[in-house]
Amino acid sequence: MSSSPPIGTDVTIVGGGIAGLWLANLLCARGYNITLFERGGVGGGQTMASQGMIHGGLKYALGGSLGSSSEAIALMPGRWRECLAGRGEIDLRPLTPVSEHYYMFAEASAMGRLTSFFASKSLRGRIKKLKSGDYPRGFSGFTGVVYELDDFVLDTRALLDKLLEPISNRVLHHEFDPDNCSLGDRAAGTPVVLHVGGTRIETDRLIFCAGAATQSLLDKLKIPTPAMQLRPLHQVIVRHAFPHPFFAHCLTGIHRAEPRLTITSHRDGSGWLWYLGGQLATRGIDKSAEELCRHARNELAECVPWVDWTGARFSTLRINRAEPKQASGQRPDEAFAQQCGNHIVCWPTKLSLVPDLGDRVVGLLDSPRHPAPVSYGLPGANVAQYPWGI
Q1: Is the pTM above the cut of 0.85?
Q2: Among residues 54, 217, 308, 383, which one has the fewest Cβ atoms lying within 10 Å of its Cβ?
Q3: CA-based Rg of the chain, rounded to a whole angstrom?
Q4: Whole-angstrom distance, CA of residue 296 vs CA of residue 276
Q5: Are 268 and 246 in contact (CB under 8 A)?
Q6: What are 322's strand-pairing partners?
Q7: Residue 153 dihedral angles phi and psi, to the nearest 5°
Q8: pLDDT at 48 exceeding the cut of 80
Q9: What is the rounded (10 degree) CA torsion for 172, 178, 184, 190?
Q10: DSSP H or E segment with residue 361
Q11: What are the residue ranges spanned by the domains of the chain?
């Protein structure tokens, strides 16, 4: 170990997905001296595999009522739009949505009681039934019902590029090593100590934002709580010749409070590929890639019959959503940040809730007290590629 004087920092963040980058920007803007360690490509885990949707929870209200999961997330599209306009806690200008709205669609006969629910006063301003002449171009040939949501879609790589740009000198390509970490004692006023190469870092708060890797780090550091759960998904990627992007939930024939298909579009050369989630992904975890591709082709033929799927090419992507463990094993309703001593453990639970996570973490921190950071002599981290290879 080096005999050089230690470097004092306010916060060290482990993990450079959307949660880590958002917190790093938020805290830097508030005067905190922060360093972020990312062992791979920035956003290379759950973030780049997300569908990029910023939503207000209506897709969780398909049972015909607004539960706690919908209420907790309802304000998030507005929070994000404020940031895109330069008026929020993080200035995301000139980033613009890939799609300004998300849509729900179904055959008219399949809507049932959802028709009156979507027209209720409680949803005013959050959802609007469109006239057929106002349908997006991707719905050309569809004869059912289309609703426009206040939700929107971001290009996740462009979002990560924007968040990395102002703090690139603080986001370092380095694997956090629990064996070279001492958690210190907050009550006694001793900091967390990290040994990085020949440098001793003394940091007031260590924040874990490492997604699915968080549990193993907590185990190695003998931190018993909180515990993590993983919710597996088996998403489908479809390359095809249809020229229009598509951003929508299919509600035709649903038998549970979850969209049958959740479809987003992503650039694929001069065209678009479709990325499929929803029931297809949650129920597809027990299917092989070949089985799920066949099932997805059949689902698209039933749900989006106005598109010719003859020459489409299908592939799949397995991902795990890392979340705080729930007694029921179900999806958490809110972002999660828990402090214990000198460390904070975070899971945003979904992309939309990252601003809520920021609120929670800021509320757990003392005021900044260290001067500007110095160089550790480590390379900076770069944004990862999309998992479908573009």
Answers
A1: yes
A2: 308
A3: 22
A4: 8
A5: no
A6: 230
A7: -130, 135
A8: yes
A9: -30
A10: helix 354-362
A11: 7-46+159-227+327-362, 98-154+230-323
Rounded alpha-carbon distances, angstroms, from residue 316 to 48, 87, 274, 299: 15, 38, 11, 15
- Residue 316 phi, psi dihedral angles, 5° rounding: -130, 165
* pLDDT tens-place string over residues 246-275: 999 999 988 777 899 999 999 998 889 999
The rounded mean pLDDT for the chain is 92
Largest Cα span, the chain:
74
Angle (CA) 11 17 18, round 5°: 90
Quickly tell me which residue has 């997300």 as its tokens.
50
Amino acid found at 260: R
Q: What is the CATH number of domain 98-154+230-323?
A: 3.30.9
Task: Count CB neighbours of 121 within 10 A.
Answer: 6
- Looking at CATH, the fold of the domain delimited by 7-46+159-227+327-362 is given as FAD/NAD(P)-binding domain (3.50.50)
How far, in Å, CA of 293 to CA of 159, rounded?
29
Q: Indicate the DSSP class of residue 244.
A: S
131 vs 380: CA distance, rounded Å: 50
Coil, helix or strand at residue 271: strand
Over 90: is that where the pLDDT of 113 sits? no
Contact 354, 348 (CB under 8 A): yes
Which residues, 6+ apart, have CB-to-CB distance to 288 below 8 Å?
none
Residue 218, H or E segment: helix 214-220
- pLDDT at residue 65, as a whole number: 63
Give 328's pLDDT tier (boundaries 50, 70, 90).
confident
Assigned token pair, 104: 């729900």
Tokens matching residue 168: 């690139």
